[in-house]
């Protein structure tokens, strides 16, 4: 959610990739909305065969000792009318995936990174590939990328009780846009619950192939800083409410779907961009979350300008009494906590354990699947419009992947398992790309 200066024209893609603070420019050319269940020009016929010559890419294998299983759940919150599309559903509907350590590989096929209709829309003109990454519509076969998880595989009998970690994606991104990191964490013995924020993500696929596409700019788009700030507050409030609803449902799901293997006394959360803000704010608002990671997500509501510390969130103003790791990038307006007003305020006000690492040579999307997928696609001729470096920086994809996995696993190992590998004690010779701040 790093902001960018307003000295040049911003299109929708540039705005979404920079996150919440730059929502104003996107609002001026609002994304066309599609109610759940209604036809969508960009997804009609999405089940047609994809051209065999389109570029494809692979996700790296998980590094943990376990295989990975996946269960997809459709959850309905009957206590809320959908805040973005009350005409589409009387209740708030969410899609979540649970990744977990699975028994040795069986007959179940590997799960695609994205379901078919969602993948087609993701790669279309109004999908996150175009809006957040600058990829030309139809330039890659996003549906061909497989995860390393197997659908509904049994939980590994030696995995024991599983700490639970929630994941919230960036603004516009689907819950599947950090599959490499999520699968890796699950392979180390965690149940990882990824949450789609319906009508804010560019697409969410429900059972039967029904798509719900972005509608956060329906009606009169906000045209000034105050209106944009109000929208940002609503975005975060809806996300936190989604998170707390999922937390409410976990005990029942644990009993009915997971054989009581989820350890609900050990819950963490992480997220990228707006999802990082969501993780921190949800921790502030709900004590069930014991530890969290914010990946490059500012924690204020400034709209239309660089954040200046004037509209801080309550988590920035009041801090936390539980551990939070800040993971920054070298995107413009980002960096370590001393370069971001909301992070600096959080740093001063928090009472819990805290640390800050910054990935050298990175960009805002470096903590997502973009870091490993885009270079592969670029080698096949499908490059982001502003170039590969503008999208994912100069850091080597394998080193960025290894560092991100190591720091996330180390953090949750320390605070949810009590296993401290000391990676977060200070600078590490294993990962010189990570600049450490305390």
From TrEMBL:
Signal peptide: 1-35
Domain of life: Bacteria
Residue ranges the record marks as coiled coil: none
Pfam families the record matches: PAF-AH_p_II (PF03403)
Keywords from the named record: Hydrolase, Lipid degradation, Lipid metabolism, Signal
UniProt keyword Hydrolase present: yes
Record-linked InterPro entries: AB_hydrolase_fold, TAT_signal
Disordered: region residues: 31-65
Keyword Oxidoreductase carried by entry: no
The name this protein goes by in its record: Esterase
């Amino acid at each position: 959610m790093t902001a960018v200066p307003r000295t040049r024209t911003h299109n929708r893609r540039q705005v979404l990739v920079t996150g919440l603070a730059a929502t104003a420019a996107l609002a001026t050319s609002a994304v066309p909305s599609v109610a759940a269940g209604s036809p969508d020009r960009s997804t009609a016929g999405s089940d047609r065969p994809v051209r065999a010559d389109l570029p494809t890419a692979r996700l790296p294998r998980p590094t943990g000792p376990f295989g990975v299983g996946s269960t997809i759940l459709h959850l309905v919150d009957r206590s809320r009318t959908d805040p973005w599309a009350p005409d589409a559903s009387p209740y708030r509907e969410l899609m979540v995936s649970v990744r977990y350590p699975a028994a040795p590989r069986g007959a179940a096929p590997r799960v695609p990174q994205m379901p078919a209709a969602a993948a087609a829309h993701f790669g279309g003109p109004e999908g996150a590939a175009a809006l957040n990454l600058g990829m030309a519509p139809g330039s890659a076969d996003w549906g061909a990328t497989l995860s390393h998880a197997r659908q509904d595989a049994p939980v590994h009998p030696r995995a024991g009780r599983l700490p639970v970690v929630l994941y919230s994606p960036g603004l516009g991104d689907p819950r599947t846009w950090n599959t490499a990191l999520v699968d890796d964490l699950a392979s180390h013995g965690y149940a990882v619950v990824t949450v789609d924020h319906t009508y804010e993500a560019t697409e969410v696929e429900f059972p039967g192939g029904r798509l719900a596409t972005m509608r956060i700019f329906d009606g009169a788009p906000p045209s000034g800083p105050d209106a944009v700030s109000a929208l940002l507050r609503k975005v975060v409030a809806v996300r936190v409410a989604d998170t707390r609803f999922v937390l409410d449902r976990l005990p029942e799901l644990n009993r009915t779907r997971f054989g009581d293997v989820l350890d609900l006394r050990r819950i963490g959360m992480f997220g990228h961009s707006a999802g990082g803000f969501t993780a921190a704010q949800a921790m502030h608002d709900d004590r069930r979350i014991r530890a969290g990671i914010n990946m490059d997500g500012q924690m204020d509501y400034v709209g239309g300008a660089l954040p200046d510390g004037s509209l801080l969130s309550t988590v920035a103003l009041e801090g936390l009494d539980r551990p939070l790791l800040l993971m920054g990038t070298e995107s413009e307006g980002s960096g370590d906590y001393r370069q971001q007003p909301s992070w600096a305020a959080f740093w001063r006000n928090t009472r819990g354990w805290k640390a800050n690492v910054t990935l050298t040579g990175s960009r805002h999307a470096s903590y997502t699947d973009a870091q490993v997928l885009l270079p592969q696609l670029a080698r096949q001729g499908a490059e982001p419009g502003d170039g590969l470096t503008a999208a994912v920086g100069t850091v080597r994809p394998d080193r960025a992947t290894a560092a991100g996995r190591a720091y996330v696993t180390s953090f949750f190992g320390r605070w949810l398992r009590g296993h401290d590998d000391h990676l977060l004690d200070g600078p590490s010779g294993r990962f010189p790309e990570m600049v450490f701040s305390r």
